[in-house]
Design goal:
The structure holds 2 protein chains of 2 kinds. By secondary structure, chain A is mainly α. Helices cover 58% and strands 0% of the residues of chain A. In chain A, helix 3 (56-76) packs antiparallel against helix 4 (80-105). By secondary structure, chain B is an all-alpha fold. Chain B has a domain at 71-274 and 285-372. In chain B, helix 6 (150-181) runs parallel beside helix 13. The longest helix of chain B has 33 residues, at 12-44. Classes of the chains: A mainly alpha, B mainly alpha.
């Protein structure tokens, strides 16, 4: 255990030395006040910007500003671990997922104004007012009845900020912690069940291996003939020629309308008229016309 | 006296010197790294590499950087004006900030002031680097979105998924180190490696960190967000001039930062390597620590170049599978093992010899059990047709070899008389079809 004690001493000593050694509880240093008056309005600006931005991605960015400001406020208030975790988890992971989804949705999509859930607005209003009441009530409680003691005492005893958070999380609040993780796992599993698609079902994606096997069982294991690019010309519309000199029908793209193809209309008609079968193993094209022999 | 106490009474001019020093170090490292990379990759490919500008070509990247600054700054019509401007800045600033917690040398005296060669020492120093990299990726993602064109957007989506996945593996690999050093402060982690570097003690963590640091910095073979063979330039396709230069700078500074963190976490940071300190005590001087630190960082940077010169780019799904199904589970199992060993060690119930014997027995039993596992049965498909012989495609037995055509000339008899180039003449049609 001596190693652990040593580490605890390390952690205690490594606390930010800007804090006075034994401050009176509930004092706010000048630096903290300055930081608050800069970061507070910034986070408020971010929150308002999130509400009023037209673009969904801009909204998300304003929210990122709010979260970053909150993270820095935590750090200023002697909770460096919480501050950085706020930045890593909320701005780093959660907001990034938000952005991910928003970008997939597309920049020009707008909200649908058709109300699909009946009574949605009423329910939202009731719940919103109720939530606001809860927040105001608990805030009022916190301002009036709870005496703030500051974190200095906790941070300077028993291994410092990080160790104390760990100890509290895994002893006093263990049940709540596990309950939260169970909730998150349930949500993740639920999302996977909803989003999971069976690959072997009808009309779904085949694996690469299945595709390869299918191709080898079919009558064309190789790829389709490429166009005759660089053989005679550098246009993709140039048809490929088979060993006997006729046009390989599969090399002509239906999408590319080109003069080359029109010039070869006779040939093409000839080939399609005989119902050219592309048997790559036989290496034969259609029989050449008698007239040209 | 701990590093944090040492740093706490730094006067303001010393802090400014350190800030400027770190900035200059990172920028110079970037310029050096670009050149070094080109030269090393060239050497690997048997060619000379840049050798025109400056002595031996070492000023090539400086010239390139100056040229980049004078290029026209283009903003696409569809781009989102503010976000397009903000993205390179966002990707650049955290890259520099992250370096502030790295201890680049030991205790020294600058103009009579005792201090450590480190800008700040936070009790959660390692988390600062993680937080900075997670903010830095916003630059990449936003640049892709704000460009308003599909390739950058695809690059941005890849980057978002990639960095989130690999940051988990990276964070888990750091947990082992924190368990042994009892601290998240970078300077304490370096001090905890006085006797034995963590690369020996925690080799799996080290391997996972090195793999995930390559994924985190979008470097080959994990450079999917800017895969030039698929996405043109990925997220920075639409960027030019100084904005592009900022992305370039951010990428290289990030490489230096993760390499520096790797040497801090696993190679003992500024500590003297290989017991050289016992030969001459001057090696343990704080300023000499700077040399060791830079040498270790350069080693990791060389690994970056080496990987780029060696490995082909991974496919995206393989890359994600590697992250989630290999690196993360291995880290989790490894962390549990480390925690178990430490708990047993701390409880003092077993001596080291007993512990090693138990470990050996457990491993032996696991190996024996794995021998007992039956082989997986290969399912025989009764309808299967042998499509290949010996694993390779072979021509069928009934192969019809065509008769040689009587004339090798193309079928042109029915064509119109105008000068058609394609089938008749071999040369004339260049460019006009």
């Amino acid at each position: 255990m001596s190693v652990l004690n040593l580490a605890q001493d390390f952690l205690v000593a490594a606390q930010p030395a800007t804090q006075p050694a034994a401050p009176v509880a509930d004092t706010i240093s000048t630096g903290e006040a300055v930081a608050f008056w800069i970061l507070g309005p910034l986070s408020l600006l971010g929150a308002l910007g999130m509400l009023f931005a037209r673009n969904a991605v801009h909204s998300a960015l304003w929210l990122v500003l709010t979260m970053l400001s909150l993270g820095v406020i935590y750090m200023v208030q002697q909770a460096p671990f919480l501050g950085f975790v706020q930045i890593i988890v909320y701005t780093g992971a959660i907001m990034m997922l938000f952005l991910f989804v928003l970008m997939l949705v597309g920049r020009d999509s707008s909200d649908s104004i058709v109300e699909v859930l009946r009574g949605q607005r009423l329910a939202a209003a009731v719940l919103g007012v109720g939530f606001a009441g809860l927040v105001v009530g608990s805030l009022a409680q916190a301002f009036t009845r709870v005496d703030s003691v500051g974190l200095t005492a906790v941070n300077s005893s028993g291994g410092g900020n990080v160790a104390n958070i760990g100890a509290a999380l895994f002893t006093k609040y263990l049940f709540v912690f596990e309950l939260t993780s169970a909730l998150l796992i349930t949500a993740a599993v639920g999302a996977m069940v909803l989003a999971y698609s069976d690959r072997h079902g009808k009309g779904l994606k085949k694996t690469q291996r299945e595709l390869v096997e299918e191709r080898f069982k079919g009558d064309r294991p190789g790829s389709l003939p490429g166009p005759g690019v660089f053989a005679t010309a550098n246009s993709v519309a140039t048809p490929a020629l088979l060993p006997d000199g006729s046009v390989a029908q599969e090399s002509l793209s239906a999408l590319i309308e080109a003069t080359t193809k029109e010039h070869l209309a006779d040939d093409v008609a000839d080939v399609s008229g005989t119902g050219h079968r592309a048997d790559a193993r036989a290496l034969t094209g259609s029989a050449p016309k008698e007239g040209t022999e | 006296m701990t590093t944090a106490e040492l740093l706490a009474d730094d006067p303001i001019w010393l802090i400014l010197i350190k800030v400027v020093g770190i900035f200059a170090f990172l920028v110079v490292m970037t310029l050096f790294m670009i050149n070094w990379e080109r030269k090393v990759v060239a050497r690997m490919q048997q060619r000379p590499g840049p050798n025109r500008v400056g002595p031996n070509g070492w000023l090539q990247s400086l010239a390139d950087g100056l040229k980049l600054a004078f290029k026209e700054d283009i903003r696409p019509v569809l781009a989102d004006k503010w976000v397009f401007f903000l993205a390179p800045v966002i990707s650049c600033i955290p890259a520099f900030v992250a370096f502030s917690v790295i201890p680049i040398g030991g205790e020294v005296s600058i103009f009579g002031e005792r201090t450590a060669l480190q800008l700040v020492d936070l009790p959660v120093g390692v988390l600062v680097v993680l937080a900075c990299s997670s903010v830095g990726v916003y630059g990449i993602v936003l640049s892709g979105w704000a460009s308003g064109s599909p390739y950058p957007l695809l690059g941005a989506l890849r980057s978002a998924a990639q960095v989130i996945s690999y940051e988990i593996a990276m964070g888990l690999s750091i947990v082992g180190v924190v368990m042994f050093s009892h601290s998240m402060s970078t300077s304490d982690i370096v001090k905890a490696q006085g006797n034995l570097w963590f690369v020996v003690l925690l080799f799996p963590s080290f391997a996972i960190y090195v793999i995930s640091m390559v994924g985190e910095t979008n470097r080959a073979p994990f450079d999917l967000p800017e895969a030039e063979s698929e996405l043109v330039g990925g997220f920075h396709t639409e960027y030019s001039s100084l904005k592009f230069a900022l992305f370039f700078l951010a990428e290289y500074v990030n490489m230096v930062t993760v390499s520096a963190l790797a040497s801090t976490l696993f190679l003992g940071g500024y500590q003297t390597p290989f017991g050289l300190g016992s030969l001459w005590s001057g090696f343990d001087n704080g300023w000499f620590g700077l040399v060791w630190f830079v040498a270790k960082t350069l080693f990791f940077l060389f690994v970056f170049i080496w990987l780029r010169g060696t490995l082909p780019r991974m496919r995206y799904d393989q890359f994600m599978r590697l992250g989630w199904k290999v690196l993360v589970p291995i880290s989790l199992v490894w962390i549990v093992a480390v925690a178990l060993v430490r708990a047993l060690n701390n409880s003092g119930e077993f001596s080291q010899q007993q512990f090693l014997i138990i470990l050996g027995v457990v491993l032996g039993v696991l190996v024996l059990l794995s021998l007992l596992l039956p082989d997986r049965k290969v399912e025989e498909d009764p309808n299967a047709v042998p499509i290949t012989g010996g694993g390779f495609p072979v021509p069928p037995l009934d192969l019809e070899v065509p008769k040689a055509p009587t004339r090798r000339t193309p079928v042109v008899a029915n064509l119109p008389k105008e000068p058609v180039a394609v089938t008749a003449s071999k040369e004339a049609s260049d460019g006009d079809v």
